[in-house]
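Write out the 3D structure for:
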Amino acid sequence: MTSVSVGNESSVGSRDPEERVVVISCDTHVGPDMSQLRPYCEARYIDDFDRLSKAIAGVATEQHDTVDRYRTRAGRGFGQWNSDFLRAMRANTESSGEHDFDRRMKDLDRDGISGEVIFHGSQNINPLPFADHGQSSEASSLELKSAGIRIYNRWLADFVSVQPERHAGLAHLPVWDPEACVQEVEWARAAGLRGINLPGLRPYDRSIRLYNDPVWEPLWTASASLEMPLVNHSAPDVVLTRTDTVEAYSLLLIESQVVSRRFVPWLIYSGVFERHPTLQVVLTEYRPGPWIRVLLDEMDSAYYNQSNRHIRTALPKEPSQYWKQNVYMGASFLAHFEAQQAVREGRADHLMWGSDYPHIEGSWPNSVASMRKTFEGVDPDVVKDILGATAAKVYGFDLIALQNVADR
């Protein structure tokens, strides 16, 4: 069996045992605290920001206490949370790597990761400023939400400006204002961010227009021309009526992925990829399983439905062809059978690996061992594509610069 070195460790997959493979995690998270974000707040919102900071501090204290209660009560509320899980989660909230750059780089180095794609949303309970977390009545203001997004994006741009070859930061957008979205994308690209964190369809939120609405065309144009991929991170955009049962978290895992990925067929059928063939969409922290094949078959079946001939005039290609042309999968903590399945079904060239750092459900800090299991028996060239080369292409990483990191 041949081996590949990741950092200082040996894993499966390369013809040269001394080769250092570039590993890019397509899924990492940050959680800046409010004191770090305050310098980026516009003066006219500083009083609102300070009130929110005090409210968040109270909520954070309450949630930390709740974690302790969950640990002793064996998991009321998403009842599958056992004491070991909650103990690890509490320890994770005390890690500085979520917002301290030097600590973060040490963690990535130790985990064999040369580059990273950064999402907001860590497990230290630090929210996006003025987002809907229930801390204060100001969260209902779209103006304040927009201000909060600008605060975070500007902090993130500075955060990734140190060793920029290692980071692809993803900008948040004020999705209730499509015109402002374009302006923020243009700013983000100029500031060094490399993609857009695009939420899924949210029919319950009437402030966000559906993605087949022509009002979004300037955003699709800007994203394609500026090479800013649209990245959706699977999120619990579902409401469970009961969360204190053992099955609740399983239902959330299933339904959140189904709901979050709904927007891709909307983009395909409304001709977005036909008009913008270079536009890239990434679905991150999705299980890359049989549902992809089923969805592609369903979309093609609808395309050829005898009552749907007009769509074939608007779209010269089958929907599955647009998927294969424009859609990538960010498969965090990829399983061995999932990697094998992607190879068998010809999907490995659009697959990227992620550690989910610093979330405790991810592979960090044991990513080397995880990769060794995931890629056992997989062709070495395919392994290198999934671990880094594909992410480098999608997000514009410099593989030569990252090779120097990997070699070090």
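Residues 38 and 123 are 20 Å apart (CA to CA).
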